[in-house]
Amino acid sequence: MKANACVSSLAEVSLESAEWKLKFISAYFRRKDANAALLSNFEVFQLLTDLKQQRKESGKNKQSSGQQNLNTIMYETLKYISKTPCRYQSPETVRNFLVAMKGHKLTKAEKLQLLNHRPVTAVEIQLMVEESEERLTEEQIESLLQTVTSILPGDPEEQQRDSAMATEDKSAQA
């Protein structure tokens, strides 16, 4: 019943407006079953980036204290989240990742952790997948790592450094 009330109140608002997005987030966090829908860092990043852009374009200068608090939260969240792998993701990357994850027996929360953090070592996988030692073999962990690193883009500068180090190691061994 509450979900219908939430949907009906959202239907009154233009789908394109920032207010709709803000009301959607507020309604989402007020629901009792908050785990029914999970948002990835990429989705939050996109949402906040769009809201920020729309606010710039609207040019409203006078803001209430509540609005200033919201701006602070948005700023701090964007500051943090822009340092995570989500800034290199796109909707198609996320879609491809989720399709590739169907072959792995992981929960939604575990897939979300992998998407948000882009692990590159088996230790990171073990920290994100509950009871991974019992549920996954070493081959499955390696397969999972291969899937994650091949689909989800990492920091281009970091990848260049890693490939340069690998090339130096190979030449030093020769």
What does this structure look like?
With 174 residues, this protein is mainly α. The protein is 70% helix and 0% strand. The protein contains ten helices and no strands. The protein has helices at residues 2-11, 18-30, 41-58, 65-81, 91-101, 108-117, 122-128, 132-135, 138-151, 156-173. The longest helix has 18 residues, at 41-58.
Number of strands: 0
Distance between the termini: 69 Å
What is the succession of H and E elements? HHHHHHHHHH
Mean pLDDT: 77
Strand content: under 5%
Which residue ranges are poorly predicted, with pLDDT under 50 across at least 5 consecutive positions? 1-16
Q: What is the CA-based Rg, rounded?
A: 20 Å
Helix content: over 70%
The biggest beta sheet reads: none
Class of secondary structure makeup: mainly alpha
- Please count the helical segments: 10
Shape: elongated
Describe the secondary structure blueprint for this structure.
Blueprint: H1 2-11, H2 18-30, H3 41-58, H4 65-81, H5 91-101, H6 108-117, H7 122-128, H8 132-135, H9 138-151, H10 156-173
Helix pairs in contact: 3-4, 5-9
Feature tags:
single chain; 174 residues; mainly alpha; 0% strand; elongated; disordered N terminus
